[in-house]
Amino acid sequence: MWSLADKIISSRFLIGTALYPSPQIMVDAIKASGSEVVTVSLRRQSAANGNNLFWQSLQELPVNILPNTAGCHSAKEAITTAQMGRELFGTHWVKLEVIGDEYSLQPDPFGLLEAATELLAQGFEVFPYCTDDLVLAEKLVAAGCNILMPWGAPIGTGKGLINPYALKNLRKRLPGVTLIVDAGIGAPSHAAQAMELGYDGVLLNSAVAQSPAPVLMAEGFKHAVIAGRAAYEAGLMPERDLAQPSTPTIGTPFWHQEGDNK
Description:
The structure is a single chain. This protein is an alpha/beta fold. 39% of the residues lie in helices and 16% in strands. The strands form two sheets. It has an eight-stranded parallel β-sheet with strand order 5-4-3-10-9-8-7-6. It has a two-stranded antiparallel ribbon with strand order 1-2. Helix 1 packs parallel to helix 9. The model is unreliable at 46-50 (pLDDT under 50).
């Protein structure tokens, strides 16, 4: 069990709700993931995908909804979308996204900080999606954010953790902040790596939703997150430049054969 904002939950795997072949596959994948927090984009859910069935499916799940402001390109737009999410879902949680570059979907650090500051003043629990930049992270924390969601790589690329050093540095410099790797995770091994660095959780969508077998992939990620966290808590062995035998050598080995008493 761990604390995420004002909730006590067990799973450290947060999952998205977009891009699934059908609402039923989405539901089955979320159940297989064991996730207790799912993100929902208010701007990208289209009527053509079956809104009514989508919302009904979500309401049947015992999960916490984390509305997000995906697709917003200004602080004003993100703030308005967050307010809609609070009204629709009855939650003060918001995953805050303010996109600065359409090609890489990299967050706009200035718009993100502006929107986060305003939403915090309005009583929101802000989950800002940001890069792994330490200075931006520190400014978001200084503004009042208790949770940060730095990317592993640009959204939807599946490249994994492209800068482990920066992510490790964030974890070291912000020991009291809840850190969740969000975006770019494409394989369960990437999720395990993030957890081994001491991150509190991972959030992903495309790697499960666009898999040929979303339900099975969701289960794979579930176990990877658990394994990575267990490894972190147990303590990873240090890397060495030289080989070292796992069985200590005490003396010269010998073999005793029957009839050999010499």
